[in-house]
């Protein structure tokens, strides 16, 4: 099926904000002041053109690509094409483009309407090269072609998570759907090596479910959280070459459902103590409700877990974990939960929370996995659906101000976010089109098409510190893939 490629569009709006005070848990908090209708943004203008691509997969240097331009305007009289490089042949709305060498390339359409109006659209593409075509010294400077992490015939990569250590080695976990299991891979800059973390075995393991997450400590040691069907939430780490596996939840606080999210972070105020969040469903104040559980490692095979009594929306609401958790340097943990809420947790302190109640950010999470990262300046960047929220944390509240920026005019539920130079660097799926979104010098979004990928539950991105290059993991066909 052909994919549609998107073009650049402006950032979202700055949303006025009033803080919600944290009262008693049973008392609903006051709502932020409504945003006046005249202050709300107009919906993004319809694109004049989109591109339909004939090929699938990544964009490879010197290959021939064929495009068909689709116009939202019925009064287009003529179209001219131009390219930043390579060889271009056009006929009306059709273009055949022999791609240039690896790097960023662009294709521009200039159209004239019946009334003489000029319309211009520019599409950006990341053109990749085969590693074998590059000299060793040039590898860090050229976008390379995607590679299969797992070369077995199993279906892999519906869920993946990716990180780099300080020496530039890659670390990745992924789900094997053919034989439900979790696998771990390491990359030395040229080759991936994989090994089983957990799965079905004789008197050991179990059926792994798709929720899983990865983080690394300063030594590059992996810390992994995942779920086993009917057997709770598990933590795994490496001791030398041996996997240490520990059950995190208890009989009193089992995880909810079969697909509830899990997340893991290391507490810098407690010697990088592993801390895990998941969702519990059960009796609370006489009612069955969804609650976020935070569990931290108290010792070898010993975990301390408790539900977090967030005061917002209020205690009668379900408070499902919605995505990634993140610590600040003081040991305050930020947790996206419920619909449009974010909370804080710290041992021996009262949890606080804030609910986004604006036109742009209402129902912010829905069923989407939230990416949450902290910038060097101390801001939080939250990505979910088609919105990135720039959050200024407070000293006694999770949020003192925020800025909500649309990245798309429609939902892009599968995506991930990293910070590069203090700014968001986002990747998401448009169905099967894999797209990178970054701000330009004026903070308007620049969209770069990376090729096509299989629709999946989770993709991930991470920046390699030794080169500054942002890499991705995703599913291509039925294979976990790295680029």
Write the layout of secondary structure elements.
Layout: E1 4-5, E2 13-14, E3 49-53, E4 59-60, E5 64-71, E6 76-83, E7 87-91, E8 94-98, E9 103-113, E10 118-128, E11 147-148, E12 156-164, E13 170-176, E14 181-187, E15 192-198, E16 200-201, E17 204-205, E18 208-216, E19 222-228, E20 232-239, E21 242-247, E22 262-267, E23 273-284, E24 287-299, E25 302-307, E26 326-327, E27 333-337, E28 341-345, E29 352-355, E30 371-374, E31 380-384, E32 387-392, E33 401-406, E34 415-420, E35 423-430, E36 433-439, E37 445-452, E38 460-463, E39 470-476, E40 479-482
Parallel strand pairs: 4-10, 10-37
Antiparallel strand pairs: 1-3, 2-33, 3-5, 5-8, 6-9, 7-8, 9-10, 11-40, 12-13, 13-14, 14-15, 16-17, 18-19, 19-20, 20-21, 22-23, 23-24, 24-25, 26-27, 27-28, 28-29, 30-31, 31-32, 32-33, 34-35, 35-36, 36-37, 38-39, 39-40
* Contiguous runs where pLDDT drops below 50 for at least 5 residues: 1-44
Oligomeric state of the chains in view: single chain
**Largest sheet data:** 8 strands, mixed
The total strand number stands at 40
Beta-strand percent range: over 45%
Would you state the CATH class of the largest domain? Mainly Beta
Descriptive account of the structure:
- The strands form 9 sheets. Strands 4, 6, 9, 10, 34, 35, 36 and 37 form an 8-stranded mixed sheet that branches. A 5-stranded antiparallel sheet has the order 1-3-5-8-7, with no helix packed on it. A 5-stranded antiparallel sheet has the order 2-33-32-31-30, with no helix packed on it.
- It is mainly beta and 483 residues long.
- A hairpin with a 5-residue loop joins strand 26 and strand 27 (333-337).
- The chain has 2 domains: 45-133, Immunoglobulins (Immunoglobulin-like, Sandwich), CATH 2.60.40; 142-482, YVTN repeat-like/Quinoprotein amine dehydrogenase (Methylamine Dehydrogenase, Chain H), CATH 2.130.10.10.
- The chain is built from no helices and 40 strands.
- Residues 1-44 have low confidence and may be disordered.
């Amino acid at each position: 099926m052909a994919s549609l490629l998107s073009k650049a569009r402006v950032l979202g709006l700055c949303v006025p904000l009033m803080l919600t005070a944290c009262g008693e848990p049973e008392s609903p908090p006051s709502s932020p002041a409504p945003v006046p209708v005249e202050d709300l943004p107009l919906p993004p203008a319809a694109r004049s053109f989109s591109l339909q691509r004939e090929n699938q997969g990544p964009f490879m240097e010197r290959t021939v690509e064929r495009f068909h331009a689709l116009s939202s305007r019925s009064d287009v009289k003529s179209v001219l094409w131009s390219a930043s490089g390579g060889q271009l042949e056009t006929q009306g709305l059709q273009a055949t483009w022999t791609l240039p060498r690896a790097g960023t390339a662009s294709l521009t359409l200039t159209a004239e309407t019946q009334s003489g109006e000029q319309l211009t659209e520019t599409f950006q593409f990341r053109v990749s090269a085969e590693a074998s075509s590059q000299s060793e010294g040039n590898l860090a400077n050229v976008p390379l072609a995607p590679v299969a992490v797992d070369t077995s015939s199993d279906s892999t990569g519906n869920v993946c998570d990716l990180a780099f250590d300080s020496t530039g080695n890659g670390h990745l976990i992924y789900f094997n759907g053919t034989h439900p299991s979790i696998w771990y891979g390491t990359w030395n800059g040229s080759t991936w090596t994989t090994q089983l973390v957990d799965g079905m075995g004789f008197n050991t393991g179990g059926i792994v479910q798709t929720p899983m997450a990865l983080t690394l400590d300063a030594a590059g040691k992996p810390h992994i959280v995942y779920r086993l069907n009917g057997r709770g939430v598990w933590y795994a780490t490496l001791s030398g070459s041996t996997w240490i596996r520990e059950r995190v939840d208890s009989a009193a606080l089992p995880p909810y459902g079969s697909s509830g999210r899990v997340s893991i972070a290391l507490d810098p105020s407690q010697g990088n103590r592993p801390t895990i969040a998941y969702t519990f469903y059960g009796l609370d104040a006489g009612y069955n409700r969804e609650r976020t559980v935070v569990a931290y490692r108290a010792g070898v095979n010993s975990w301390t877990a408790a539900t977090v009594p967030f005061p917002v929306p209020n205690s009668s609401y379900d408070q499902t974990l919605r995505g990634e958790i993140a610590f600040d340097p003081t040991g305050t943990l930020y947790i996206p939960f419920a619909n449009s809420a974010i909370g804080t947790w710290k041992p021996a302190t009262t949890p606080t929370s804030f609910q986004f109640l604006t036109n742009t950010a209402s129902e912010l999470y829905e069923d989407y996995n939230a990416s949450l990262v902290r910038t060097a300046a101390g801001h939080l960047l939250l990505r979910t659906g088609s919105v990135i929220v720039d959050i200024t944390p407070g000293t006694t509240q999770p949020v003192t101000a925020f800025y909500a920026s649309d990245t798309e005019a429609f939902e892009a539920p599968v995506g991930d976010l990293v910070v590069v130079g203090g700014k968001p660097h986002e990747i998401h799926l448009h169905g099967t089109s894999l797209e990178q979104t970054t701000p330009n010098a004026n903070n308007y979004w620049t969209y770069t098409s990376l090729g096509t990928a299989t629709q999946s539950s989770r993709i991930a991105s991470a920046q390699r510190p030794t080169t500054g290059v942002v890499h991705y993991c995703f599913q291509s066909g039925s294979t976990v893939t790295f680029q």
